[in-house]
Amino acid sequence: MEPVKVGLLGLGTVGGGTVEVLTSNAAEIARRAGRGIEIAFAAAREYRPESINGLDRIGRIGDDAFAVVEDPEIEIVIELIGGYSPARELVLKAIENGKHVVTANKALIAKHGNEIFAAARERGVVVGFEAAVAGGIPIIKALREGLAANHIEWIAGIINGTGNFILTEMRDKGRDFADVLAEAQALGYAEADPTFDVEGIDAAHKLTIMGSLAFGIPLQFERCFTEGISKIGAMDVVYAAELGYRIKHLGIARRSETGIELRVHPTLVPERRLLANVDGVMNAVLVKGDAVGPTLYYGAGAGALPTASAVVADLVDVVRSLTTDPNNRVPHLGFQPDALADTPVLRIEEVETAYYLRIFALDQPGVMARIASILGEQGISIEAIKQKEPGEGETYVTMVMLTHRVLEGRMNEAIARIEALDSVQEPVMRIRMETLSG
Amino acid sequence: MEPVKVGLLGLGTVGGGTVEVLTSNAAEIARRAGRGIEIAFAAAREYRPESINGLDRIGRIGDDAFAVVEDPEIEIVIELIGGYSPARELVLKAIENGKHVVTANKALIAKHGNEIFAAARERGVVVGFEAAVAGGIPIIKALREGLAANHIEWIAGIINGTGNFILTEMRDKGRDFADVLAEAQALGYAEADPTFDVEGIDAAHKLTIMGSLAFGIPLQFERCFTEGISKIGAMDVVYAAELGYRIKHLGIARRSETGIELRVHPTLVPERRLLANVDGVMNAVLVKGDAVGPTLYYGAGAGALPTASAVVADLVDVVRSLTTDPNNRVPHLGFQPDALADTPVLRIEEVETAYYLRIFALDQPGVMARIASILGEQGISIEAIKQKEPGEGETYVTMVMLTHRVLEGRMNEAIARIEALDSVQEPVMRIRMETLSG
């Protein structure tokens, strides 16, 4: 049988990795897919030919991505350009031309996925996006197919390697955020502009996608709450450890009685949980289904070859489904498009979690009692409290406390009232906390 | 669209769980599959009606399993009887009658899978067996589809919950094997005859299946090396911990230069590895692919609902593929049947690993030197050695050592020579060791 002819948009890190995997594992991939896969046409504005293994196996290389999606010979388009535009236009044009699409573009899917999937369905083609979430970990397939029997209750994932590297270094070496970030940038783990990673936007893209797959809701990136790790202090990492917790930057999607939570934020996790022990640039996603219980998926969340692993897995899936009835394929979001739910995504104020609070207050009688009574008035009960002895001659003291679960709206009021006290000088540090056991 | 009519063989633990999941999650499963799934006909010799939620949703219940596989109304047969016979005859008859099959029967697939898959291919039907390995963890799907881009290098899995529960208790509480086994039996984690679990036969069934999926070789259960955990002493658990290791009962499938290793045995694993921290009855499988690197899959490996989760996921897959071209479905072993390899499975003597050795010898000058020289003559280098001080008045001493990697055949010779020494009284305790990093 003739090899399948594929078009490739982008020859950067992941594009180069995809060429390498398709070249070095060509025989094994064909043994699995039943057909060879040939990159017939690639387009890239700029690329470094010397850094790509297997470049000579590409049919032809041009600089116009639209020429690839218009080429009638191409059956499947791999989009590895990233960003919203022109990725969106290219993908929609490829679909319009009846081509299947494989993409690693989490921003594109999180923001324009509803439109793209509708167009693909209309035209009877598949859009694969395994590579968009958690790199090489086959988490899309697990959520969409492997756990299809389950009512998913929640997902909690370490889905940004840069952030996890920074938090791991802060804990292992007692270093400051800014210090580790600078090193991560030097090592190439963090971009010159680290906002996407450390402020949680990248994680929010991925969480949005997983939330839709888990709960059968349309993609709603704009409703995902996002808080970064840049305000975590070295002392918070230490205090958390003293209490038996580690701080991880988690993406959490949860079904509550009132709606769906989609939130990315630093989180205290009990240190014995596997998720608390996922270190460095690695990713992991913990999924709680009603039948299966907790399952965890761990692996490299980024990098040329791990991401290419997911791109090529999607390619093999598409090749296997080339002859299938379009109406009986696995739906893009796991649920049939006409069976998506309109369950509301909650505002963060409507979310209930436990909290770690760090308060810096005057070391004088009655302050602690005043804070405790504010919490009590807001219906917040305290699970643990630690007061750090002030150094000699110091007049301020640090209080650390863990609370039971409470609505964020109530906690916001409590914090505002605590910060209004004369004896409290700095803003209260608040980190959400999850046991990941329920 | 009409619901798909399914026949169910067996209403024991997993059968009951399957009925419960299909009942309680019926709406959500139909939203995913695009069609309802109806258990039209079930057969069981004996069952406890009061323990099954959703029993009233089954069309009819009889006691003749063959009547189910002969019923022309049934499109998919779920085999949850277990064992070789009559499961094999039932599955083959269902296939002959053009029905798809979903099974949780690891023994059946490991031993008769080649015959069953050939018959299914001939008849154009699918045999799903996700539930046969690691319960609710979607590891079959991960190996067969999610990692399809990879040349798989090795797999190491905790794939028997009973054994892992026993080893976890031994470590946490310093208890003996026999003691913990008795408790596991009382708790229902271990069978009255625990051989299948603690001697590694159950794990060998599962490993055989994973090895074929990873390396594209026919199922060869009879070639899988199997060693149980019943000889592990409480002291071995302690000594391993002192050296920074934990003992886990692993199934390991590995591709070496000379062939394929399939082996189940107790294994020392560095304590910082996630796999070393998988405790209690939980399962986990670590897979090393050349592109993706290491990925890990964790969850419940047994139990009514977790196993039912995998059974129903397969059902959904089959429902989705009812209209597909049989020649373009995912092949049963991940590789096209005519592309399976004849790479030999190695004998254990041909396998290379590192070792933990515990030797009980006379406390007299020269004994250690004699042992070290035997190891040296066999080309075995020692990585670490610990001599336990003998108690007052004791004349024997325990030596514990870790070796570098060496062929098992050489180690067998070395151990035979050490055991032949007059100063060595008990058989040498040997536990294989893996870093799981390469």
Structure characterization notes:
The structure is a homodimer of 438-residue chains. The first copy, chain A, is α/β, with parallel strands linked by helices and 438 residues long. Chain A has three domains: 4-136 and 304-339, NAD(P)-binding Rossmann-like Domain (Rossmann fold), CATH 3.40.50.720; 139-300, Dihydrodipicolinate Reductase, domain 2 (2-Layer Sandwich), CATH 3.30.360; 350-433, Alpha-Beta Plaits, CATH 3.30.70. In chain A, 35% of the residues lie in helices and 24% in strands. Chain A contains 14 helices and 17 strands. Chain A has helices spanning 13-24, 26-33, 65-70, 87-96, 106-123, 139-146, 161-173, 177-187, 195-198, 201-215, 234-242, 304-320, 367-377, 408-419; strands spanning 4-9, 37-43, 60-62, 76-79, 100-103, 127-128, 152-158, 225-226, 245-255, 260-270, 282-289, 293-300, 352-362, 382-388, 396-403, 406-407, 429-433. In chain A, strands 7, 8, 9, 10, 11, 12, 13, 14, 15, 16 and 17 form an eleven-stranded mixed sheet that branches. In chain A, helix 4 (87-96) packs parallel to helix 5 (106-123), helix 5 packs parallel to helix 10 and helix 7 (161-173) packs across helix 8. The termini of chain A are far apart. Chains A and B meet through helix 1, helix 2, helix 6, strand 12 and helix 12 of A and helix 1, helix 2, helix 6, strand 12 and helix 12 of B.
